[in-house]
Amino acid sequence: MKTTRSILDAVLRLLGFGIATALLLGGTYSFTKDKISTQQELAAQRLYSQLIDTNSYTNNLNETAIDTPAFLATVTHSDAPVLLATNHDELAAVLIPTDALDGYSGRIKLLIAIDKHGNLLAVRVLAHRETPGLGDAIEVSKSDWILGFNNLPYSLEDRAGWDVAKYGGDFDQFTGATVTPRAVVRQVERTLNAIAEESTWLKELQTHE
Fold first, then answer.
1. pLDDT tens readout for residues 54-71
2. Which residues does 98 contact at the CB level (< 8 Å), separation at least 6?
3. What's this model's pTM, rounded to 2 decimal places?
4. Contact assessment for residue 98 and residue 126, using Cβ atoms and an 8 Å cutoff
5. Backbone angles phi, psi at 70, to 5 degrees
6. Is the pLDDT of residue 185 over 60?
7. Which of 57, 104, 125, 151 is such that its CA lies 20 to 30 A from the CA of 51?
8. Which residues contact 161 (CB under 8 A, 6 or more apart)?
9. DSSP type of residue 106
10. Are 191 and 72 in contact (CB under 8 A)?
């Protein structure tokens, strides 16, 4: 009888502890969720401001997200939505998530900004696992290499320079690290190429409501 009562007491204490912990965690989440959401929104805005001029659009980018079209999803390998930047309902820019699968250490997640004509505005790296001190130079906080994509025109007729110098392209590679920058350059080019080949897509977006 004593053993049964001891077990019951132990179970009740564990149950009480579990309930108290759940309440504490729930209270903490309720208290902090708005702050977390605000910080995430601010981080997103800081990222967007690196890609497109904040004076060029008037909408909330997160409120004009659309699914990546099938023709583009096969190239971008990303299930994140495309973001439309509009200036008083007129298309100003498009932000496209795209993932390079051939980084030295695997997937490199990128965000590309293009104007309404398909020209490249900027590129930023969202996440990667490349080697610190070598491949991580793709980060804007580590070097200015990624800025070499700024405001580049793109056409199907002029694609020769879209590779690193070692392979005859116009983009610098890193000392001791060619795979990482080449993966980024080639993925950006693949994405731009897919959009250029599907020329009606951007025109349709310009009438998107």
1. 999 999 998 999 999 999
2. 75, 76, 77, 78, 110, 111, 112, 187, 188, 190, 191
3. 0.80
4. no
5. -60, -40
6. yes
7. 104
8. 169, 170, 171
9. E
10. yes
